[in-house]
C-alpha cells in the first residue's frame, strides 16, 4: 500500500516549510519534526538528531520518512559530522528498529559540486558521475548516499536520495536557472519517490523541467516524476539583472557554483 503517514524532518527549514504546505494535497498526513519549534504546528516533535530515544519514538508507526533535517550549508567539520553523519545514522537506526521501510533523503547538488557544468552540446551530468563534494557539507551528502545504500543492502530499507538543486519559490540567480526545483515540483518528486515500487537505493537529481538543465532527470522520471515547471519564465529578468556569469567564475565552471570557493555560504 502507498505510504500515507510521513515523518517530515527539518519541518521548520526552508524546504520543510514549503513541503508542509504542499505534501498534504498529495494525500499525506505529516508528523513534522525539527530541532526548533515548527511555526504553526504545535503538535510537531521538537527533537535533536542526537536524541536516539526521541527519534525512535518519532518514527514509530509512520509509513515513510522524508529526511530534510541537518545542516544545509557549509559549517565546521565537527558540526557537520554531528548533524549530518551521526544524526543520519541515528535516524536510520530508528527506522530499522521500528520497521520503517522507505526513506527519502535530501542529498544535494553539492555532493557533486566540483563536477564541471556541461557546456552547450555536452551531455547532461548523469547520476553515476563520481562524487565530487565541494564542501564538508557536500561530503556529508556523499556519506548519506552511501549510508542509504548500506541500509538497503544490509537491512532492506529503501531510499531515494534526491540531489536537490535549488528549491526556493523562485530562482534568484542565473545558476539557479539550471538547478531550480520549484516547490510544486519538489512535492511531485517526493510523492514519486514515496510511491514508486522497488526503488532499492535510487539516486535522482531534483529539479524542474528547466530549459537550461545541467543534469539528467531520467532516474527521477523513471520513478514517475513528471515536472511541470521551467525556470525559463525567470530567465529574462535574471539575465537582465545579473548578466551571464563571467568566464571562469565559479557559477560558470562548476555545478556547485559559489560553494566551490574558499568562502562557501555558511550555516546557520
Ligand atoms: C544546497 O544544498 C543548499 O542547502 C541550499 O541552501 C542552496 O544553496 C542549494 O544547495 C544551491 O546550490 O543552490
UniProtKB/TrEMBL annotation:
- What keyword terms does UniProt attach to this protein? NAD, Oxidoreductase
Which segments carry the region annotation Disordered?
Answer: 241-268
Q: Does the keyword Transmembrane helix apply?
A: no
Q: Which residues form the NAD-dependent epimerase/dehydratase domain?
A: 7-171
**InterPro entries on file:** Epimerase_deHydtase, NAD(P)-bd_dom_sf
Query: What spans are recorded as compositionally biased (Pro residues)?
Result: 262-268
Q: Does the keyword Iron apply?
A: no
Similarity remark: Belongs to the NAD(P)-dependent epimerase/dehydratase family.
The entry's protein name is: NAD-dependent dehydratase
Amino acid at each position: 500500500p502507498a505510504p500515507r503517514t510521513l515523518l517530515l524532518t527539518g519541518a521548520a527549514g526552508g524546504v520543510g516549510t514549503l513541503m508542509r504546505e504542499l505534501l498534504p494535497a498529495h494525500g499525506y498526513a505529516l508528523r513534522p519534526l525539527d530541532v526548533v519549534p515548527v511555526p504553526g504546528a504545535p503538535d510537531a516533535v521538537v527533537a535533536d538528531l542526537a536524541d536516539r530515544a526521541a527519534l525512535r519514538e518519532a518514527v514509530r508507526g509512520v509509513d515513510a520518512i522524508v529526511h530534510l533535517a541537518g545542516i544545509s550549508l557549509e559549517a565546521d567539520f565537527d558540526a557537520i559530522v554531528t548533524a549530518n553523519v551521526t544524526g543520519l545514522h541515528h535516524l536510520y537506526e530508528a527506522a530499522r528498529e521500528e520497521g520503517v521501510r522507505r526513506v527519502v533523503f535530501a542529498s544535494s547538488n553539492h555532493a557533486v559540486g566540483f563536477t564541471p557544468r556541461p557546456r552547450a552540446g555536452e551531455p547532461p551530468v548523469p547520476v553515476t558521475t563520481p562524487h565530487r563534494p565541494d564542501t564538508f557539507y557536500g561530503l556529508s551528502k556523499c556519506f548519506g548516499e552511501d549510508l542509504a545504500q548500506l541500509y538497503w543492502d544490509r537491512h532492506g530499507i529503501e531510499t531515494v536520495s534526491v540531489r536537490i538543486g535549488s528549491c526556493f519559490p523562485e530562482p534568484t540567480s542565473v545558476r539557479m536557472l539550471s538547478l531550480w526545483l520549484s516547490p510544486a515540483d519538489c512535492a511531485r518528486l517526493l510523492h514519486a519517490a514515496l510511491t514508486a515500487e522497488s526503488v532499492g537505493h535510487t539516486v535522482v537529481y531534483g529539479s524542474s523541467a528547466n530549459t537550461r538543465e545541467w543534469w539528467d532527470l531520467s532516474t527521477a522520471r523513471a520513478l514517475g516524476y513528471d515536472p511541470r515547471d521551467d525556470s525559463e519564465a525567470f530567465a529574462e529578468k535574471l539575465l537582465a539583472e545579473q548578466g551571464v556569469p563571467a568566464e571562469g567564475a565559479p557559477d560558470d565552471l562548476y555545478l556547485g557554483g559559489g560553494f566551490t570557493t574558499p568562502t562557501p555560504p555558511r550555516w546557520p
